[in-house]
Amino acid sequence: MKTFKEFIIEASYVGNLGLIELVKFHQLATKQQSDEVKQLISNGQHSATWRIVQDVTNTHLQGDQFNESVRANDLYPIKEGPLQKKRREYGGYQLMTIDAQKFKNKFEQQHGEPLNWNQHRLERLRELYHDGVKINDHPLVGINHFNKVDVTDGRHRITHAAELGKKIQVAIHPDDVDKMREHLK
């Protein structure tokens, strides 16, 4: 198994994941995420490692070595403002990139209702998107006490991202990240 120092040295190349991002990952990651990354590194599963590190740190790495990672063009455009970021971080939430269509399908299957419940809100989002306006808040999602995917805020943003075939970054409590991954496999 490689040491943390060897991992840092190995990660130093064009399109790299820097020391700051690695430190950030270890600060934000749950013990389970950290252990999973260490195991993936020791097994040489670098694509899976980068995917988890990017999800936890909200970093989008560029370069062929990360070709399984989400590209910026594949993401629904959300420009989180400083106030929204502080509020999210103060609440203990981190960002996670999810496939909007998979989430929408899972939600509708588990809840027996459409994710989009207000057509007017969805129409307004479409107009804003068409005009190039970026939303400044990430949807807030989680796993409820019935072990179902759920949305506290952002149903229409996720629905719109699904319509566009995009992935979307959502705010989620760290305790729900692994459960969400399981649901969206």
Describe this structure in words.
There is one protein chain. By secondary structure, the chain is of the alpha+beta class. The protein folds into two domains: 66 residues, no CATH class; 110 residues, no CATH class. 49% of the residues lie in helices and 11% in strands. The protein has a four-stranded mixed sheet. Helix 6 crosses helix 8 and helix 7 packs across helix 8. The longest helix is centred in the first third of the chain and has 12 residues. The two termini are 28 Å apart. About 6% of the residues have low confidence.
Please outline the major beta sheet: 4 strands, mixed
| Total DSSP helices | 9
Over the alpha carbons, how many angstroms does the gyration radius reach?
Answer: 17 Å
> Quick check: average pLDDT?
82
Order of helices and strands: HHHHHEHHEEHEH
Total strands: 4
What does the overall shape look like? Answer: globular
Which descriptors apply to this entry?
alpha+beta, globular
How are the SSEs ordered, and which strands pair?
Blueprint: H1 4-10, H2 19-28, H3 31-42, H4 46-57, H5 82-90, E1 94-99, H6 100-111, H7 119-130, E2 140-143, E3 149-153, H8 155-163, E4 167-172, H9 177-183
Parallel strand pairs: 2-4
Antiparallel strand pairs: 1-4, 2-3
Helix pairs in contact: 2-4, 3-4, 6-8, 7-8
Précis, in short:
Helices cover about 50% and strands about 10% of the residues. Helix 2 packs across helix 4, helix 3 runs antiparallel to helix 4 and helix 7 crosses helix 8.
